[in-house]
Design brief:
Elements lengths: L11 E6 L4 E20 L4 E7 L4 E8 L7 H8 L4 H4 L4 E8 L1 E8 L1 H9 L22 E8 L4 E5 L4 E2 L5 E3 L4 E7 L4 E8 L9 E2 L13
Parallel strand pairs: 5-10
Antiparallel strand pairs: 1-2, 2-3, 2-5, 2-9, 2-13, 3-4, 4-11, 6-7, 7-8, 11-12
Length: about 220
């Protein structure tokens, strides 16, 4: 559960910008005054915010300043090289927008594991300690699910220089990466990227204003 919940009465349709010209309509959660700790990073150029849960975990959002040509997973990897825990400032009153999400992903890992040198699992592995007779692995599947709602998050899975600014809003209204972290150790428990919160939804043409494509530093 969020430490500071969103009011369901403020949730309303809003645009999520897939790129500079295309958007989809999503249910956007809002809060006019949210106590949020966030900062901007110069390399890579991103905004990073920490939304605390009750307990010792947090939802960390990483939003590129521009529509990245490189993969969001690469951006996330670069951000993880920094000491994020030491970078978060004190919470400040912030206007927040965040899309409601209910996503699920299934991935076959056979090809990935083969590239990692574990292809023998699928051909002639020595699994005699598990069962008598011939035994091999037919497939390895990974399932991940994420639900973002006003009251909190449900997530499940199997198998530079930092500059601060005192801006008044933090919007998750374009592709972003995220982590669910354990606050004491700063270890990521769950990671992912959101390119489109509503896959299959009708696309809308929308030109993003020029002053929304880059963060201005004081």
């Amino acid at each position: 559960f969020w430490e500071t919940k969103f009011d369901p009465l403020l949730t309303e349709p809003s645009l999520f910008h897939l790129d500079k010209e295309t958007a989809v309509s999503v249910e956007m959660m809002k809060r006019h005054i949210f106590p949020l700790s966030w900062f901007t990073m110069e390399s890579p150029e991103v905004k990073v915010a920490k939304f605390p849960f009750k307990g010792n975990t947090s939802f960390v959002a990483i939003v590129p300043s521009l529509y990245q040509q490189k993969n969001l997973s690469q951006v996330l990897s670069e951000v993880l090289q920094h000491n994020l825990q030491a970078s978060f400032p004190e919470e400040m009153p912030t206007r927040v927008k965040m899309p409601k999400l209910d996503l699920e992903d299934h991935t076959e890992l056979n090809e990935v594991l083969t590239r990692l040198g574990l292809g023998e699992l699928f051909s002639a592995p020595d699994l005699s300690r598990l069962a008598e007779g011939p035994l091999m692995v037919s497939s390895v599947k990974h399932r991940a699910a994420l639900e973002l709602a006003e009251e909190g998050v449900k997530a499940a899975a199997a198998t530079s220089v930092v500059a601060f600014r005192s801006a008044s809003h933090f919007y998750l209204d374009k592709p972003f990466a995220f982590m669910i972290t354990e606050d004491m150790t700063n270890i990521p428990l769950f990671m992912g990227t959101i390119w489109n919160p509503r896959p299959g939804a009708p696309l809308e043409k929308h030109v993003l204003p020029a002053n929304r494509t880059r963060f201005r530093m004081p």
